[in-house]
Amino acid sequence: AQSVTQLGSHVSVSEGALVLLRCNYSSSVPPYLFWYVQYPNQGLQLLLKYTSAATLVKGINGFEADFKKSETSFHLTKPSAHMSDAAEYFCAVSPQGSSASKIIFGSGTRLSIRP
Amino acid sequence: DAGVIQSPRHEVTEMGQEVTLRCKPISGHNSLFWYRQTMMRGLELLIYFNNNVPIDDSGMPEDRFSAKMPNASFSTLKIQPSEPRDSAVYFCASIPGSSYNSPLHFGNGTRLTVT
């Protein structure tokens, strides 16, 4: 069965520091992978997605994620954190060949930015 | 595009009352999803419609919950009777088609409080 694990329910970094949010998945074949962001009192928004075209995926707001098959990881990074990045981030996995209803969300990581 | 529209944004009701949540998907999207988000359980898929037909309702918690999609531009999620444990944020999401690689477009949710 597919699963996704986000390491760290809460990450705090200083403004300008590197952001690293970890996501590991479990799948017999490489799935499609997504990162979503949720700002307070809003729904989830797509940040980026991996579709097997390239292992380094660039998303919105300066975020990128690196797909590493050998490590079954899809960690999200941003070189320099901004106060506006404070939000909750969800990693999600969608099994190839299945319908969108089979997407599995991680438990989320809340990112706080210190001034 | 107006995005996925949900109403109301907030709902406070007493235990035993009927609650109806509403969703208008993005025009042209023919798959619609209802999710529930709580601190304890994260994001849970309740039901998935494709072309107005319920395809997967295995996540509907119990008979008190029902969902309909009478046409391509409107869906409702009803809880009758409501209970305090139903308190959560309910999200509606839509995608074009039904593919596993389509990112979900979420509404801003309805925050339900049952006292």
Describe, in plain words, how this protein is organized in 3D.
The complex is a heterodimer of chains A (115) and B (115). Chain A is mostly beta strands. Helices cover 0% and strands 54% of the residues of chain A. Chain A contains no helices and eleven strands. Chain A has strands at 3-7, 10-14, 19-26, 32-38, 44-50, 56-58, 64-68, 73-78, 87-94, 104-105, 109-114. In chain A, strands 2, 4, 5, 9, 10 and 11 form a six-stranded mixed beta sheet that branches. In chain A, β7 (64-68) and β8 form a beta hairpin. Chain A is globular and about 45 Å long. In chain A, 34% of the residues are buried. The model of chain A has no long low-confidence stretch (mean pLDDT 91). Chain B is an all-beta fold. Chain B has strands spanning 5-7, 10-13, 19-24, 31-38, 42-50, 53-56, 65-71, 74-79, 88-95, 105-106, 110-114. Chain B starts with a strand and ends with a strand. Chain A binds chain B through residues 32, 34, 36, 41-46, 49, 51, 90, 94-103, 105-108, and chain B through 4, 31, 33, 42-43, 45, 48, 50, 55-56, 91, 93, 95, 98-109.
